Amino acid sequence: MKITPALQRRLEKAARDAAKNSYSPYSQFPVGASVLTESGKVFTGTNVENASYGLCNCAERTAIFSAVAAGQRVLKCVVVYTPTLRPTSPCGACRQVINEFGPKIPVIAICDGEERLETTLDMLLPGAFGPHNLEEGF
Ligand code: THU
């Protein structure tokens, strides 16, 4: 699946739109994410916080879990948007979850400023623990 400029724009708009549904009364830090799957479908997610703070779920994981719940296990790209001046890189937990379904995929972070981050998951999480570790046996 080639990520054309038009498709990238669509993913970026989807991430921006998803942030509008953020439930972040505790951090006041809205995040939106979109993921492109192997079949060309786009799934979105936002951060969903909880009065029990440890239960907060990040936008990226909401989007990925939504894709997996729809039977889409191969990711091709992740976009994360925050209404900040500089882009926000995915947290460690989200990097680990992205690794499960797209260990080398592009990760794009956009914001309300000019700056953007365009990297790959293996740059963000080198030497990742993943499914292969469990297949190696004892
Ligand atoms: N958050 C995300 O949604 N994605 C990230 O990669 C970083 C953090 C959310 C979690 C929490 O709701 C808020 O941002 C502040 O940490």
Describe the model.
- The relative contact order is 0.16.
- It is globular, with a radius of gyration of 15 Å.
- The mean pLDDT is 97.
- By secondary structure, the protein is an alpha+beta fold.
- Strands 2-1-3-4-5 form a 5-stranded mixed β-sheet.
- Helix 3 (92-101) links the parallel strand 3 (75-81) and strand 4.
- It is built from 5 helices and 5 strands.
- The longest helix has 15 residues, at 5-19.
- The structure holds tetrahydrodeoxyuridine (THU).
- Tetrahydrodeoxyuridine binds at residues 24, 27, 29, 31, 47, 49, 56, 58-60, 90-91, 94.
- Residues 24, 27, 29, 31, 47, 49, 56, 58-60, 90-91, 94 line the site of tetrahydrodeoxyuridine.
Order of helices and strands: HEEHEHEEHH
Strand tally, please?
5
Order of strands in the sheet with most strands: 2-1-3-4-5
Strand content: 15-25%
Number of helices: 5
User: What is the radius of gyration computed over CA atoms, rounded to a whole number of angstroms?
Assistant: 15 Å
Hetero groups? tetrahydrodeoxyuridine
The oligomerization state is: single chain
Q: Which secondary-structure class do the elements indicate?
A: alpha+beta
Which percent range fits the helix content?
25-40%
Concise overview:
By secondary structure, the chain is an alpha+beta fold.
Keywords for this structure?
5 strands; 33% helix; globular; binds tetrahydrodeoxyuridine
Present the secondary structure layout:
Blueprint (H helix, E strand, L loop, with lengths): L4 H15 L12 E6 L4 E5 L12 H11 L5 E7 L10 H10 L4 E5 L6 E4 H4 L6 H5 L3
Parallel strand pairs: 3-4
Antiparallel strand pairs: 1-2, 1-3, 4-5
The structure holds tetrahydrodeoxyuridine.
